[in-house]
Design a protein that fits this description.
The protein is mostly helical. It contains 21 helices and no strands. The longest helix is centred in the N-terminal third of the chain and has 49 residues.
């Protein structure tokens, strides 16, 4: 048997063992689910019994809540250092509903806060998936408190783990906590990881940030030059959705021909969302560029020009309609149609010899009519036809 055959058979054996393991693991999990659900119900009832009626002065103090929570966990034999107990508690808390029950649950969660820093450090030493689950638990049950400083440091360590689930969940917890300083630190950590977090995932995560987006963007821009192209792209896309205050930065990127293509395209899209008079001439030049290799710039620029006024813009968009590239023609037609130009205003296109330009505008006019619905005359005509058919 050759070495390559040994390698293939060995790889097959590993794959088979993983499949068998996953099957057994899922069977065990399914067997445990009813037990976990029953135990979670018992924990929920015990929690409500202990807290719903207990609204005395002692229960309102922070020390009283902390002691009560520790005692409750001990009574229910819930060692939160074990994932099974953490899952049971999470299921019990998520099953709480109704105003009174939620008040009781929230008081319990507040009393849980002093325990979280030690648990966070403890789960850092466990299996990656268990660490990842604790990050999810934190994103749901952490409340703003004096213990945030320790939790933020722990989550930054979570975000530096090689396991992708752990990293994503840690970032989600950081976004939920809303601390701009630590989110920007975590982004810098991700940038240096061997396996990069996809830029779309990073952008969507930043958009979910619960704190001050202005502060977070400012911090990310400060470290912008030290980051890789993929991370910078995620940040530019994030800025595009959240702030119109970075036009000069975007203009510099858009006009720098030595800059990465994706970054320049992101900057062009930015000016489609936030019109900037200084960018007008650059967008027109890009939209009317007939070089086949530059079609992406032309297509994105044609789309960005939809909110810019002026005959020069209309002329540029008409010129883009004659592009050999379908996407350029389509975006130009969308921008022209968005300006509400009438059929007669585009008569030179509609009666011209270029069939592709004419068909593209007709396609856009038809789309607009479909979206707007039939007018009174059209409705009358349809009713008449139905009447004759009847």
């Amino acid at each position: 048997m050759s070495g390559s055959e040994v390698l293939i058979y060995g790889y097959g054996a590993v794959c088979l063992s993983m499949i068998v393991f996953n099957i057994i693991y899922n069977i065990v999990l399914r067997a445990k689910e009813p037990q976990t659900t029953k135990r979670a119900e018992r924990v929920k009832e015990a929690l409500l019994k202990k807290y719903a009626a207990g609204r005395g002065a002692d229960a309102d103090t922070e020390d009283g809540e902390e002691l009560d929570v520790r005692a409750f966990l001990k009574e229910e034999r819930l060692d939160l250092g074990k994932p099974e107990a953490l899952l049971t508690l999470s299921e019990a808390l998520s099953a709480i509903s109704g105003k009174e029950q939620q008040e009781a649950g929230e008081r319990f969660i507040m009393g849980l806060q002093p325990l979280l820093p030690a648990l966070a450090e403890g789960y850092l030493k466990k299996d990656y998936m268990q660490t990842a689950y604790f990050a999810v638990f934190l994103s749901h049950y952490r409340r703003g408190s004096d213990y945030d400083a320790a939790l933020l440091e722990s989550l930054l360590k979570y975000a530096a783990q090689e396991n992708m689930y752990c990293r994503v969940n840690a970032l989600d917890a950081l976004y939920a906590m809303g601390n701009a300083e630590y989110v920007s630190k975590a982004v810098a950590v991700q940038d240096k990881m061997e396996v990069f977090l996809h830029e779309r995932v990073l952008t969507e995560g930043l958009l979910s940030f619960s704190g001050d987006h202005g502060e977070l963007i400012e911090r990310l821009v400060e470290q912008f030059g030290e980051l890789s192209g993929k991370t910078r792209l995620a940040i530019l896309n994030y800025i595009r959705f959240k702030s119109g205050a970075y036009k000069e930065l975007m203009y510099r990127i858009m006009t720098d021909e030595s800059e990465d293509r994706e970054l320049r395209l992101s900057a062009v899209r930015y000016f489609g969302r936030y019109p900037y008079e200084k960018a007008r001439s650059v967008l027109i030049r890009l939209a009317t560029d007939k070089e086949a290799l530059h079609w992406e710039y032309a297509a994105v620029a044609a789309g960005a020009l939809k909110d810019y006024d002026g005959e020069d813009v209309i002329s540029a968009l008409k010129s883009a309609l004659y592009s050999s590239n379908w996407y350029v023609r389509y975006n130009a037609a969308v921008s022209l149609e968005a300006r509400g130009l009438s059929y007669t205003r585009l008569i030179d296109v509609m009666s011209g010899e270029d069939r592709y330009a004419r068909e593209m505008m007709e396609y856009r006019f038809q789309e607009r009519r479909l979206m707007e619905g039939p007018g009174p005359q059209e409705e009358s005509r349809v009713r008449g036809e139905r009447g004759r058919g009847a």
